[in-house]
Design goal:
Elements lengths: L7 E2 L7 E2 L1 E6 L5 E3 L2 E3 L11 E6 L13 E3 L2 E3 L6 E3 L7 E3 L1 E3 L2 E2 L6 E4 L5 E3 L1
Parallel strand pairs: 3-6, 4-7, 5-8, 6-9, 7-10, 8-11, 9-12, 11-13
Antiparallel strand pairs: 1-2, 13-14
C-alpha cells in the first residue's frame, strides 16, 4: 500500500512539519531497513521534507543524529529528494538503497535509477 505524508503538523514547540516519510531527527543507533517510501512532499514551509530524512534538531535544543543506518530501502517520487541528509552528526551510514534522487548528490549508498531504466551509484 502506498501512503503519502503530505499533511502539515502545525508549529507549536517546534517549526511546522510536513511531507516526511521516515524522519531520523536527532536519533541515535537507529536502523531503517527494507521500507518502501513513496510520494512524500509538501507545499508549505517545513523543517525538512522528503522520503527518508536524516536531520539535526540541535537548533531546537535537540541533538545531531549519530550512528544511524539507512539501508535496503526503496524510495521514489518524494520531494525534494527520496533520501535527504543535512550532513549533521557522525557515524551515519546510507547503503544499498534504491532511489531517484538523493541530497546531497554524492550521498553514498543510494542507487539512483532514471526514467530510462539505467542505474548508477549516486
Amino acid at each position: 500500500m502506498d501512503w503519502a505524508n503530505n499533511n502539515v503538523c502545525p508549529a507549536g514547540q517546534h517549526p511546522p512539519l510536513s511531507g516526511m516519510g521516515i524522519a531520523l531527527a536527532s536519533v541515535h543507533h537507529t536502523l531503517v531497513s527494507d521500507n518502501e517510501v513513496n510520494g512524500n512532499a509538501t507545499t508549505v514551509p517545513s523543517i525538512a521534507h522528503g522520503g527518508i530524512v536524516i536531520i539535526s534538531t540541535a537548533f531546537l535544543g535537540g541533538a545531531n543524529p549519530t550512528y544511524n543506518t539507512v539501508r535496503d530501502n526503496r524510495a521514489h517520487r518524494n520531494r525534494p529528494a527520496d533520501i535527504f541528509w543535512d550532513g549533521s552528526g557522525f557515524g551515519n551510514k546510507v547503503v544499498d538503497n534504491e532511489c531517484s534522487r538523493a541530497i546531497p548528490g554524492h550521498l553514498g549508498g543510494a542507487t539512483v535509477t532514471t526514467n530510462f531504466g539505467q542505474s548508477g551509484r549516486n
